[in-house]
Amino acid sequence: MKIFMDGKLVDERNAKISVFDHGLLYGDGVFEGIRAYNGRVFKLKEHIDRLFYSAKAILLDIPMSPAHLMKATLATLRANRLRDAYVRLVVTRGVGNLGLNPRSCRKPTVFIIAGKIQIYPPELYARGMDIVTVPTVRNLHSAVNPAIKSLNYLNNILAKIEANNAGVEEAVMLNADGYVAECTADNLFIVRKGSLLTPPLSAGALHGITRGTVMELAAKQDMEVLEPNITRYDLFNADECFLTGTGAEIMPVIKIDGRIIGQGKPGAVTRRLTEAFRNLVNNSGEPIYK
Ligand code: PMP
Question: Are 287 and 40 in contact (CB under 8 A)?
Fold first, then answer.
């Protein structure tokens, strides 16, 4: 496997990071997870834009332009002869000394991995997922804003461990006010009386690219799309529920905290949006091979 590492494509065994990189020592950095389908990269520009927004929020100067990063992403996919792939693009604060002060880090480290991903077993998409709310609260805006896709994912990882401990695959994270924020790596949607509802970004949800795509697809299908604060009560009484993410795509949810959602199987709206999503990802995006 070829990895893009600080401007060059190198062999996997030579793609190494210093133990003094602050991405490792302090989780100081930002990242994106991007998907390629059928020889095209889905929403590449949107992912690169979000990477730059995350970097701006943590005062990290990415040493490459957005156009150059897009080219590097495509080149990494080509070097690995991939048409369907998951891309991880990472920018760390770079190599510094042992203190946390980023002033000692001269140059950010940039690397891109293009590989495969299968987060959940295929049967789960047909059956639907059982999820729980967990005690770990989503990061406060006033602490580390959840809009920043940073290398510091402990907030989400703790919630994921709590889901594992409860014997389920995914966790619903509430914010400090008790409203639904999102899941550990996915945004959450419910369907109620024909309308599509998802928590507002202000509730602590990531500005998910799949989230935005699904909202657009629903609007095209003449559905009302709303972003109100959502409580656990709203989840339990939803007609349908599903999760969205670059890795997970669209995952139906059939049980939350022991309450069966709707008919206890993937609902009609979820299935309709999934079909529209599949159609879109297979027929749009930046061509890898021109
Ligand atoms: N929330 C979190 C915390 C995430 O890490 C992700 C995955 N990047 C998402 C939501 C979904 O966002 P996207 O659709 O852009 O992958």
Answer: yes
